[in-house]
Structures are given as structure tokens and as C-alpha cells.
Amino acid sequence: MSINGVSSTVLRLPDVRRKTGLGRSTILAQVAVGLLPPPIRLGARAVGWVEQEIDAVLKARIAGAGADKVKGLVAELVAARSGEGV
């Protein structure tokens, strides 16, 4: 899949768990408070996360970003999905 000319992969929950090291409940809780981007709908009963967005959040965390900065990043990533972004 390509978004704005950038190749991107959709990750299912087990892949997000492996990549982040977090459990299912923690991932969903972090999505709820804006610390991880929400998944995209793939079908009636399937969702997935954009790998590029997960990577951006992990990179910010590794760089030492606090919760407020990560929430801002997540908001930018979600806004960019619909073309409202940066």
C-alpha cells in the first residue's frame, strides 16, 4: 500500500504487540488516551494499524518524548490520514 507516495504496511494486532512489546489491553488503552494511533477499518470485523504511524510513535518514545508530545504526534498522524495534517 502507498500513502502519499510512501510505502506503508498494515499491521494486525499480533504484529503491533510484537513491535511495541505491549499487550492487547495496554495497546487499546493507549489508543483510547491518544498515546497510539487508532487502527483503520479493514472490513466489517477487521482492523489494522498503519506501520509507518506505529514506527513514528516508537521513534518519538525512543527519543525521550513525553506523553504530551506523543499525543500531539498521534493527533498529527491521524489528521494526516484525512489530508487535514501538517
Tags for this model:
alpha+beta; 86 residues; two-stranded antiparallel ribbon; 3-stranded antiparallel β-sheet; 52% helix
Helical content class: 40-55%
Structural class: alpha+beta
Main beta sheet: strand number and arrangement?
A: 3 strands, antiparallel
- Radius of gyration, taken over Cα atoms and rounded to an integer in Å: 12 Å
- End-to-end separation in angstroms reads 21 Å
Domain unit count: 1
According to DSSP, the number of beta strands is 5
In DSSP terms (H or I, runs of 4 or more residues), the helix count works out at: 4
> Which sequence of strands runs across the widest sheet?
3-5-4
Topology:
Layout: E1 2-3, E2 6-7, E3 10-11, H1 13-20, H2 24-33, E4 40-43, E5 46-50, H3 51-62, H4 67-81
Description:
The protein is an alpha+beta fold and 86 residues long. The protein has one domain. 52% of the residues lie in helices and 17% in strands. The protein has four helices and five strands; from the N terminus they run βββααββαα. The protein has helices spanning 13-20, 24-33, 51-62, 67-81; strands spanning 2-3, 6-7, 10-11, 40-43, 46-50. A hairpin with a 2-residue loop joins strand 1 and strand 2 (6-7). Helix 3 (51-62) runs antiparallel to helix 4 (67-81). It is globular, with a radius of gyration of 12 Å. The protein starts with a strand and ends in a 5-residue tail after the last helix.
